[in-house]
Design brief:
Length: 338
């Protein structure tokens, strides 16, 4: 029995050393992953053996030769258990490190500034055509289609606009080509400008504060204030009157009309006589209350007509408000500089 005691002690020391190495490795790995400095934990090599000291106390049991007096064995064994359990708990928690940031809350239509100009409502599709009629000084009339826009609007307020530009082909025939597509999504609070020739979708994500006027700001005291623009005298200011035109049927839709007349007095724009600009607007009596016909007659530019045709009620396909899979999405930092 006397001869066997050194062997038992050596076996106990080896087991304890292996356990200490495992604990030290776990603590080191945990510290590296969670990036916690081990200010209260240090590791030492004593006599070719690895010893961990935690808060100034060895975590090896007192039976290890030369470690601690026998009376502190129970205390050190408890510390060993606490260190082991703590290391295991840290290792279990490691997969959750770096994932505590919650995903951004889903944006509601009321939180998005785009919803103000694109409110949810009656879904529809329509074609809007803009034409310009000009009369030259010799009496020649020139009528040209300026632009046509195919519009899709769903019940969530999402809007798709396909802008087409007319042109005269080689044979003199009038044709159209698709210039670009604009998708406005107040649900995701994002807009996409689709370049159909390059297959690029330029994206802009709106924050809740965007498109909202900021509060009053204080100008720096060292900035020289610009002089206020000169005020226009009352007799040179344009004057506008409004006239109701009653109801009518246009494109099979019940509409209500208004006429706006603006008069620019002589001398207000270098003109020797008054300039009169008239504008008529015919709006749907029922939802979605779109402008079906708008005419503006300006002697300086001609007569511009905006007409809504092919109006259909119904939910458009959801695919129309998604970026096609063969398009590359670019954020503002990657937009080409003009």
């Amino acid at each position: 029995m006397v001869i066997g005691r050194p062997c038992q002690r050596k076996d106990l020391a080896n087991r304890t050393l292996r356990k200490a190495r495992r604990i030290a490795f776990r603590i080191r790995v945990t510290a590296l992953i969670v990036q916690v400095p081990l200010r209260s934990c240090s590791f030492h090599l004593l006599g070719g053996r690895l010893t961990s000291v935690l808060a100034g106390h060895s975590i090896l049991p007192s039976e290890f030769p030369g470690s601690r007096p026998p009376e502190s064995a129970k205390v050190m064994t408890a510390r060993l258990r606490v260190a082991t359990v703590s290391s295991l708990l840290l290792l279990i928690a490691i997969p959750t490190v770096g994932q505590s940031t919650s995903a951004p809350a889903a944006r509601t239509e009321g939180d998005c500034p785009l919803a103000k100009s694109n409110p949810a409502g009656v879904p529809y599709s329509a074609l809007v055509e803009i034409t310009l009629l000009q009369t030259l000084a010799d009496g020649t009339h020139i009528e040209s289609k300026q632009q046509s826009t195919q519009v899709y609007h769903d019940s969530h307020g999402r809007l798709r606009q396909e802008f087409k530009q007319p042109f005269f082909g080689p044979t003199g025939k009038k044709e159209e080509f698709l210039r670009y597509i604009m998708i406005t999504d107040p649900v995701a609070c994002v807009t996409y400008n689709l370049d159909v020739s390059a297959h690029v979708a330029r994206r802009h994500i709106y924050a809740p504060a965007e498109m909202n006027p900021a509060g009053p700001t204080t100008e720096p005291s060292n900035v020289a204030k610009q002089p206020a623009p000169p005020t226009t005298s009352e007799e040179l200011r344009p004057k506008t009157s409004t006239e109701r035109l009653g109801t009518d049927m246009i494109e099979g839709l019940a509409v209500e009309g208004k006429r706006f007349t603006t008069t620019y007095p002589a001398g207000s724009q270098g003109n020797d006589r008054a300039i009169v600009v008239t504008s008529e607007s015919w709006r749907m009596s029922l939802e979605p209350k779109l402008v079906v016909l708008s005419k503006t007659s300006d002697p300086r530019a001609g007569e511009t007509t905006d007409r809504l045709t092919n109006f259909q009620l119904g939910e458009p396909s959801p695919d129309l408000f998604q970026v096609p899979s063969d398009y590359q999405i670019q954020d503002p930092a990657k937009w080409p500089k003009s």
